[in-house]
Amino acid sequence: MKHVVVIAPVVLLLLVSLCFSPSELHAQTKEQLRSLYDSIIVDTRAFDSMKERWLVTDPAIVREVFTQLKRRAPTALAAESLRVLITSTESLLMSSSAGDLHIMCRKRYYDDEIELVQFIVESPGSVSALGALRDYVLILDALGQETYDLLKSRRYKDRFETTHGKRYDIFLSPIEPRILLWSTSPTFEWWRISAVGRLGNDYLNLPFWFKSSIIAALELLYIDDVTVTDQTYHKFSITAGLEVVNNFSVLHQDDFSPSSVFKKRILQGSGESFFLKATWTPEKRLNVLTDQPDERIDFTFEASLGFHEKTAYASNVPDTFYSIRNSIIAKASLQNVGLFRLGGGLAWHDLHRFARFNPVTHLPARVGPTETHLLPFIELGIAHDGSLLQFEIMTSVNYSLDDGYGYFGVKSKLILSNMLGLDLRYFRSYRSSHLPPWQYEKYFVPSFVVRINY
C-alpha cells in the first residue's frame, strides 16, 4: 500500500510532462505538488491563540530573510505569496524607517517548527502587517535550511535575553551559589564557564552545614542546540574544584538536647578533597513516556576524593569525632515528563573516626577501622518554568544497606520572575533506632534565593 501511495503522484507528473512544454510543465508540477501537500496538512488553527510567538528585530537578520525570499521566489512553491510579500516590503526596507521593520514568527502547535513568518512594521501606537508566509514546508522551501535555522534560533535568543537572562547570571544562594563568568555568543551552540559552590550533600542525607565542608569549583557547560527552550538543558557539563573544611560550631552544645540542631556535632571535616562532577544528556527529545518535545534523560556522576588531612583541630571540636573523606554518587533522571521529573541512583561514602589529639604524637589519630555506607535512592517531583513563576518540588527516599535506616526528603524551590525565591529542604529519618551516632533524626534547611541578571 505504501508503494502505491508513493508511485501515484510520480505517474501523475509523468503524464503531465507529456502534455505540456517545459515552462508549462514547471508551473503544472508546482501546482500538483502544492495540491498534494495541501491535502495532507493538519489544520491546527483552533489552537492559534496557544501557539508560541517571537519577534525578530535584528535589522541584519530581517534583511537576510528578505534577501533569501527574493532570491528563491522564482522557484519557490509559495511563489504567489512571496511576490505579494516582497512587493509590500521592499520599499520600506530600503527607506530610512527600515529599523521599524520586524519579523514575527509563530511555532507549530505539535512540534518546534515555524508555521508563520510575517513581516510587520511598528509605528508609535500601532502595528501593521505587510505580508506573511504560512506553513513549515513552504517557509523552509522559501528560506533554505540555513536561514530557516537562523529564525528558529531567535526563539531561544529572545527568551535568553529578555526572560531568563542567562548570558550574565549571578545566582545567590547559601546552598548552591553560581556566578556565570564567561559565555560564547548564543547562536546555534553555547559554551559557558561558571564559578559554582555548594554546602552539604543531599544524597548523603547531610544538607547545608551539616556536612562540615564547602565545595568551590569551576563548571564548563556546553549546549549543542539553543532552540531547546528548557533553561536547564545542556548537552554536557564538567565541574572540578575543591571540597574544603568548614567545621561550624554551635554554642552550648548538649549531648542530651531535645533539639537536634543543638546536639554536639560529632561529624566534622578532616581535610581537603578533590571534587569532580560530570553530567551528560544523550537525547534531548526522548518522547518515551509522553509526547512532550523536550522530554529527556540526564546522567550525573559525582565524586569527592580526599587528598589531605588536617594536623590540628580547634578546641570546640569533640575529643573523638567521625569524618567522611570520600564519596561517589551516580544518578539518572527523566526530565519534563509533563510537569513530572523522576530519577534514581546510588550514593556511597566512607566513614572514619578520629581522636582530636593524641597525647603521644600531639597529632590527630584514627580510631577504629574505616566503614563504608551504600545508599540507593529514588526521587519524584514536579517542576514548572514560567515567565512569572518557576517552581520545583522533589520528594525522595533512600535506604542505608549497611545500617538499615533511611530518610524521606522534600526539596522545594519557588522563584518569582526569576529574581527572588525561597529554597526549603526537609529530611526525616525512618527506622531511627538504626541511626548511627553521627546522623541527625531530622534536618530542616531554609534558604533565600536572589538572582541578578544583567
If you had to describe this structure to a student in words, what would you say it looks like?
With 454 residues, this protein is α+β, with helices and mostly antiparallel strands. The chain is 20% helix and 43% strand. The protein contains six helices and 21 strands. Strand 14 (326-337) and strand 15 (340-355) form a beta hairpin. Helix 3 crosses helix 4 (79-93). It is elongated and about 95 Å long. Residues 1-20 and 158-166 have low confidence and may be disordered.
Count all strands and give the number.
21
Helix content: 10-25%
Proportion of strand residues: 35-45%
What structural class is derived from the secondary structure elements?
Answer: alpha+beta
What is the gyration radius calculated from CA atoms? 30 Å
Write down the overall mean pLDDT.
Answer: 81
Shape: elongated
Strands of the biggest beta sheet: in what spatial order?
Answer: 5-6-7-9-10-11-12-14-15-17-18-19-20-21
For the terminal residues, how far apart are their CA atoms? 58 Å
Biggest sheet statistics: 14 strands, antiparallel, barrel
Helix and strand run = HHEHHEEEHHEEEEEEEEEEEEEEEEE
Count of separate DSSP helical elements: 6
Poorly predicted segments = 1-20, 158-166
Which key features would you list for this structure?
21 strands; elongated; 4-stranded antiparallel beta sheet; disordered N terminus; alpha+beta; 454 residues
Q: How would you sum up this structure in a few lines?
A:
The chain has 454 residues and is an alpha+beta fold.
